[in-house]
């Protein structure tokens, strides 16, 4: 994949979250777990994988597994648009890209405004929900990235990135994988130097 010309580099500290949408629901990820946000681009397919693991991309020489969070959460698949983004996160020692419908904003949520995740019984996993952030009149589901995937799923994700020959396959399709991030982040202004953009709290969508 060609190096992104309009990457959105996310930086910050403290109790801040990068929020994104999947359908009508809003989710948040600790900003310290987010490395960057890029536009959707073609992926190199790998056979015999779960549906939610779409394949890999070559991100500046690093083979990054790409997962579709809609499919991971068993939501209905949706067509990718110019708002679709890939949130690059660090899960343990592995870099993973998560496809989301759109990135909303970076917001700060006080501890007092975060409730514990509700329990839906022993048959429903909620361990990856870190809490429910109350922001004005809406709720933001805060995700614990380290618990988002089961141990077995992480093994499959890691095996994809480490599969022999994938580096060459991904690099060979570099000319077809130019990243388009225009419109990817709702309401975010370009503030970076050169081709980079920074997504800052003051860029929040009202």
UniProtKB/TrEMBL annotation:
Residues 172-206 are annotated as: Disordered. Residues 14-154 form the CheW-like domain. One of its GO terms (cellular component) is cytosol. Pfam families: CheW. Keywords: Chemotaxis, Cytoplasm. Coiled coil: none annotated. CDD domains: CheW. This is Chemotaxis protein CheW.
């Amino acid at each position: 994949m060609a190096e992104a010309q309009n990457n959105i580099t996310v930086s910050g500290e403290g109790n801040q979250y990068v929020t994104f949408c999947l359908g009508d629901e809003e989710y948040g990820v600790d900003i310290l777990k987010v490395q960057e946000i890029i536009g959707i681009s073609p992926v190199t397919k790998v056979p015999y994988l779960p549906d939610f693991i779409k394949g890999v991309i070559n991100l500046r020489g690093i083979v990054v597994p790409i997962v579709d969070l809609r499919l991971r959460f068993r939501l209905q698949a949706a067509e990718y648009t110019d708002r679709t983004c890939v949130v690059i996160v660090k899960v343990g020692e592995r870099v993973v890209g998560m496809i989301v419908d759109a990135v909303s904003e970076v917001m700060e949520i006080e501890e007092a405004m975060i409730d514990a995740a509700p329990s839906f019984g022993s048959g429903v996993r909620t361990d990856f929900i870190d809490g429910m952030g109350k922001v004005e009149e809406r709720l933001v589901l805060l995700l614990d990235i380290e618990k988002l995937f089961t141990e077995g799923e992480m093994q499959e994700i890691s095996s994809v990135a480490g599969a022999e020959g994938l580096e060459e396959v991904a690099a060979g399709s570099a000319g077809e994988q130019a990243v388009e991030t225009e419109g990817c982040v709702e309401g975010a202004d370009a503030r970076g130097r050169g081709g980079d953009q920074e997504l800052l709290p003051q860029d929040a969508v009202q």
